[in-house]
Specification:
single chain; 305 residues; mainly alpha; three-stranded antiparallel beta sheet; 12 helices; 11% strand
Length: 305
C-alpha cells in the first residue's frame, strides 16, 4: 500500500528494494542467500552488531563522564540509556555496566573489533569485578579463553576454572573488607568473591524466627512461611526493604541457596522448593544483589513482597 516510509529526519527509505539506507551506513540485505552462505552471513552480521554495541558502551561512558544524563533531565545514566536506546531496564543496566571497559584495554579492543559478543564481554566483566588485580594481570589469557569459547555457559565455567588455577592458595581472607551488616557477616574469598555468611549465625536465625512469629502471613498477604522467613532474613541483612549494600556480590552453593534463602525450604503443601521457586523467592531486582550459584546460575537475593 505504501511505497515509502517517512522517518524523523525526513530520510526516505525505499521499501522492498533489499537495502536499508541510513545517514552513513548501508546494510545490504540478501533476500534468498545460498544455504552455504548463511553461516558466514550470520558471523558477519554478528560482528557488526558487536562493534555497534561496543561503540554504544564507550559513548555511554563518555556521556556519563560529561554529565550528559543529568543535563538532559534524567535521574541517572540507566534512565538515560533506557530512553535513548528504547530498551528495558535490565538491559540498560548492563549497557551502563560496560563503562568499566575503559579499564579493560584488551577486552575493549576485541569488543570494538567485533570479535566478542556482549554476553562474552559481560562474563569478562564479572571476572573483572571479582578480582580487578588478578584480571589486570591475566586479561590477555582471559580474553583468549573467551575468543575460543563461543558458548557463554561454558565460558563462565572456563573463566572460573582459570581464576582458581592462577589464584595463590596461601592467601587468607582479607579482614580489611569484612564488616557487619545488621548481624550478617561479609568476607572475601581468596579469589576475591564476596561471601555472605548470615545463615551461619545462630543469633541472626533466632532473630528472624522471632520476627517470623510476630508477623505471621495474613490472608491478604499470601506469602508462605518459607517466603516470609526469606524476606525477614533479607531485611535483617539489608537493614530494611530497599536499603543496605546494593552492590554486594555473594557466592553460595545451590543447596545452601535452597535451604537458607528459602527459609523453611518447602511450600505450604510441604513440597520441597525447586530452583525456579528459589529464583522467584529472590526476585527483587531493586536490591540488585546477585548470587552466583552452582552451574553458573545467576540469581538475585531480595524480598518476595
Amino acid at each position: 500500500m505504501f511505497d515509502t516510509i517517512e522517518v524523523a529526519d525526513y530520510t526516505t527509505h525505499p521499501v522492498g528494494t533489499g537495502d536499508l539506507v541510513t545517514d552513513d551506513l548501508l546494510f545490504p540485505v540478501v533476500p534468498d542467500p545460498d544455504i552455504e552462505d548463511v553461516t558466514s552471513l550470520l558471523a558477519a552480521n554478528q560482528r557488526r552488531i558487536n562493534q555497534l554495541e561496543a561503540q554504544n558502551a564507550l559513548l555511554v561512558a563518555q556521556a556519563d563522564e560529561a554529565g550528559l544524563p543529568a543535563r538532559e533531565g534524567f535521574a541517572n545514566t540507566t534512565a538515560f540509556v533506557k530512553a535513548m536506546l528504547s530498551i528495558r531496564g535490565g538491559k540498560a543496566r548492563r549497557v551502563v555496566g560496560r563503562q568499566w571497559l575503559t579499564g579493560m584495554p584488551i577486552t575493549r579492543e576485541a569488543f570494538t573489533a567485533g570479535w566478542l559478543s556482549v554476553d562474552q564481554v559481560d562474563e569478562l566483566l564479572r571476572a573483572f569485578h571479582a578480582d580487578m588485580a588478578l584480571f589486570e594481570e591475566h586479561e590477555a589469557s582471559l580474553v583468549s579463553i573467551a575468543l575460543q569459547t563461543p558458548l557463554v555457559p561454558e565460558l563462565a565455567k572456563a573463566i572460573d576454572t582459570y581464576r582458581r588455577h592462577v589464584t595463590p592458595t596461601d592467601i587468607v581472607d582479607d579482614k580489611a573488607v569484612q564488616f557487619e551488616a545488621r548481624g550478617a557477616y561479609v568476607s572475601s574469598t581468596p579469589a576475591g568473591m564476596g561471601v555472605l555468611t548470615w545463615y551461619e549465625r545462630p543469633d541472626v536465625i533466632n532473630r528472624a524466627r522471632e520476627q517470623l512469629q510476630a508477623h505471621a502471613p495474613t490472608s491478604s498477604d499470601g506469602r508462605t512461611s518459607a517466603q516470609l522467613m526469606s524476606d525477614t532474613l533479607t531485611d535483617l541483612v539489608l537493614g530494611g526493604r530497599g536499603g543496605g549494600n546494593t552492590r554486594m556480590v555473594v557466592h553460595v552453593d545451590e543447596a545452601v541457596l535452597r535451604y537458607h534463602v528459602g527459609g523453611e525450604a518447602h511450600d505450604r503443601n510441604g513440597a520441597s522448593l525447586t530452583l525456579q521457586e528459589v529464583r522467584r523467592l529472590a526476585c527483587d531486582t531493586q536490591l540488585g544483589r546477585h548470587i552466583y550459584g552452582s552451574e553458573a546460575v545467576t540469581t538475585e537475593l531480595g524480598r518476595t513482597k
